[in-house]
Design goal:
- With 499 residues, the protein is mainly α.
- The chain has two domains: 123 residues; 332 residues, Neurolysin, domain 3 (Orthogonal Bundle).
- The protein contains 20 helices and three strands.
- It has a three-stranded mixed sheet with strand order 1-3-2.
- The termini are far apart.
- Bound molecules: zinc ion (ZN) (2 copies).
- The site of one zinc ion has 3 residues, from loops.
Length: 499
């Protein structure tokens, strides 16, 4: 037994070392997206390359393998066992890909990203096509190395949303799509329309920043373990539990980017700040999946930040930072304007209702690419056809169509469904929370503490100790159910559009 205790101790030391590399890489990424001078990028990319290689070596080392073998068999500590299982997954995933192939793939990834950027700028898909074809081929190969039971795409999904399969998605997405497009048709037919022009005006950066800080503070974001900075595309990043940073973007002609972007990223950050401290320095100290992470950001952004109750309690504060013309806008007009539904080409600009439709389009195309039903060359046409079919709009060019997202250029297949899953999880969590707490009244009071505490108790604290679907079932006592999202959206838009 002494040997096991010693192995546990040494294993934790190795995890600390591994974590030191991870944290340094993350900090470097944060710097590269916020503060780095332009000429510093090249050298820094090389530094990240070296550090990533080192991290990869530890994750796939013989030393790691030995700990996995010994502790899997002999440890009786639940926390150690879960940590070992996580390390084993990482180990297996990496070891199954021949290292020469992995190197080629990493080079292809970075090349593809810059080609994608050029193709997007020139609106020329044909530049990107051969690279995307290779990326798809690599992902097919990797999926086969990793293995799967029913569908090849499951192997990729598993990287982001463990336990969720094509079968799960094909059960929930078609119904969800039908409900959303039905609602969209009703909204288009309604003669009652919000007027988004009331939101126009000049919003100085400093005032947006002050409001962003005030909202994060109210959400319970801990500034002694975090900070807010400016970036082009908002993100949250957890270096460790005591250093979880938020970034946002200030558009001086449209405050919505910063306000909703900050609340969204703040939701991600609260998750990371409230993971149990006992998981520190292990791979379990992280959100359990992309989807559960997104459920937290979307919960705060939509189920708190876009509600009437929220603006009831925060409109005066907002107005104290807003330009003169906003002062006369009645709360109801403001609320309806920030919740306007309008099918658009760009996913990241989509409203709450049409957003999941964008995701379903990507999911269907990805699934087809990976199982060989769809050829890369046909993507631009298929993309536009699906946009027309689902959203009723056809992109005028590929720049705002198939070339809009960066994900495929980095070889990220299997990632998009998490966005829609997160949204469904959030609605399902919200439904359960409402049974325990008068959420509306709580939001209207401006005191978010009970809400944050509920999320911490039920979701945040566990980190990766629980798998995503396990959390959903433990919290809500049922399996993933898209009805809650549909009900929430129906109720919301029936009121706004007087359906
Ligand atoms: Zn983002
Ligand atoms: Zn997010």
């Amino acid at each position: 037994m002494d040997n096991v205790a010693q192995a546990e101790k040494d294993f934790k030391e190795l995890l600390k070392e591994q974590n030191a590399y991870r944290e340094t890489i993350m900090l470097t990424h944060w710097d590269m997206r916020t503060k780095i001078p332009k000429k510093g990028v090249e050298q820094r990319s090389e530094v990240v390359g070296f550090l990533s290689e080192k991290l990869h070596q530890i994750e796939t080392s013989e030393k790691m393998k030995n700990f996995i073998d010994v502790l899997k068999e002999h440890s009786e500590d639940d926390f150690i066992k879960k940590t070992v299982a996580e390390c084993e997954e990482i180990y297996e995933r990496n070891r199954k890909i021949p290292s020469a192939e992995f190197k080629e793939y990493v080079m292809l990834q970075s090349k593809s990203e810059s080609i994608w950027q050029e193709a997007k700028e020139k609106d020329d898909f044909s530049l990107f096509q051969p690279y995307l074809e290779q990326l798809v081929e690599y992902n097919k190969k990797f999926a086969n190395y990793w293995g799967y039971k029913d569908h090849i795409y499951d192997a990729l999904l598993d990287n982001y949303e463990p336990g969720v399969t094509v079968k799960t998605l094909d059960q929930v997405f078609p119904d969800l799509r039908k409900s959303l497009t039905g609602l969209l048709d009703q909204i288009s037919a309604s003669s009652v329309k919000p007027d988004p022009s009331v939101l126009e005006g000049h919003f100085p950066k400093e005032k947006q920043e002050a409001f962003s800080l005030a909202i994060l503070e109210k959400m319970g974001y801990d500034f002694s373990s975090g900070r807010l900075d400016e970036t082009i595309h908002p993100f949250a990043i957890a270096l460790n539990q005591n250093d979880v940073r938020v970034t946002t973007n200030y558009d001086e002609t449209d405050f919505r980017t910063a306000v909703f972007g900050t609340i969204h990223e703040g939701g991600h950050a609260l998750y990371e700040q409230n993971i149990s401290k006992s998981l520190a320095n292990t791979p379990l100290s992280d959100g359990t999946s992309m989807g559960i992470h997104e459920s937290q950001s979307l919960f705060w952004e939509n189920f708190v930040g876009r509600t009437k109750s929220f603006w009831n309690s925060h409109y005066d504060l907002f107005k104290s930072f807003a330009p003169k013309n906003l002062q006369e806008v009645p709360l109801d007009d403001f609320y309806r304007a920030v919740n306007e539904v309008k099918p658009s080409f760009i996913r990241i600009e989509a409203d709450e209702l049409t957003y999941p439709l964008h995701i379903m389009i990507r999911y269907e195309l990805e699934k087809g690419l990976i199982n060989g039903d769809i050829k890369v060359a046909d993507l631009p046409r298929l993309w536009n056809e699906k946009m027309q079919e689902y959203l009723g709009v056809t992109p005028p060019n590929d720049r705002v169509g198939v070339l809009q997202d960066i994900h495929w250029s980095g070889g990220d297949f299997g990632y998009f469904p998490s966005y829609a899953l997160g949204y469904m999880y959030a609605a399902q969590f919200n439904h359960t929370l409402q049974k325990e707490l008068d959420v509306d009244r709580q939001i209207a009071s401006g005191n978010f503490t009970p809400i944050r505490e509920w999320l911490t108790k039920n979701i945040h604290q566990y980190g990766k100790m629980k798998k995503p679907l396990e959390i959903v079932e433990d919290v809500t006592n049922e399996k993933l159910n898209s009805d809650y999202l549909v009900n929430y959206l129906t109720e919301k838009y029936t009121d706004i559009y007087k359906l």
